[in-house]
Amino acid sequence: MKLAPLNTVQNAHEDSIWTAAWVPATEDSRPLLLTGSLDETVRLWNPDGPEKVQTNTGHCLGVVSVAAHPSGRIAASASIDSFIRVFDVATNNTIATLEAPPSEVWQLQFNPQGTTLAAAGGGSASVKLWDTAEWKLIATLEVPRPEGLKPSEKSGSKKFALSVAWSPDGRQIACGAMDGTISVFDVPRAKFMHHLEGHCMPVRSLVYSSAPLDSRILFSTSDDGHVHVYDAERKTLITSMSGHSSWVLSVDVSPDGAAIATGSSDKSVRLWDLKMRAATQILTSHSDQVWAVAFGPTLRTDVRSCLLASVSDDKSVSFYKYS
Fold it and tell me: Which segments carry the WD repeats (predicted)?
């Protein structure tokens, strides 16, 4: 499997692009890409062309995370302005506005079933769960403080939460923190299960495997330059892969579960073969750090292929074909 560069949209936003997520296809629309930027907007892209479909305003500070509902009809964006905006993809009408304390939402993710929106971030070191039927806060999953510390030492910075991922069955959540730890939660019981250790710097991105037989497998990336593969249930580090020359800011897994892509502050996107446990391709379409990589759904014309998108501080969006 390899990545073939397709198109790069230069100046896709007016400032750094920090986040991207694919909106699944609906009866009325093919898959679209959502991007969020420091320019305070969320933009929607048709990869054919590629062309900009619309620009969504509504935040008054930079957008740090975007997430799409599995239905493809609604999406959410989170900003440093402390608001989460839930909106209709087709019309951009606001469905709900969820308020969080300042800088308390760094990453959003809908569960695979579409019933819950998870928001992770900030010094509260927690993951907040919102019900998508009524947009009510239904649970707060607290990341435990390190044992043995005096209360005065249990500062929020030690466990500042940065990233979140749902297991494929929606029963577990993983949360990555500034101190390099990953916390795993049992969602139905709203209970902390255990930590996954191995990183020594901030864990900025997490994703569970998409392969049916590997639903316990969790991929993580960190400022320590490493990509880790964990068995999230058995608390074991399966392997650690390295190759980027700087912080690894983002990771996503291919729909076939055979590869992952990563983006880094070394300005590159890398494709990793999971059987070989090595990077098989380095792509350099960006001129600044790559904040997000996102695999799209499989192509209708070729079910063995899909698109990958990457976004960067250089204000560009790049598209690739994975096949």
Answer: 10-55, 56-97, 154-195, 196-240, 241-282
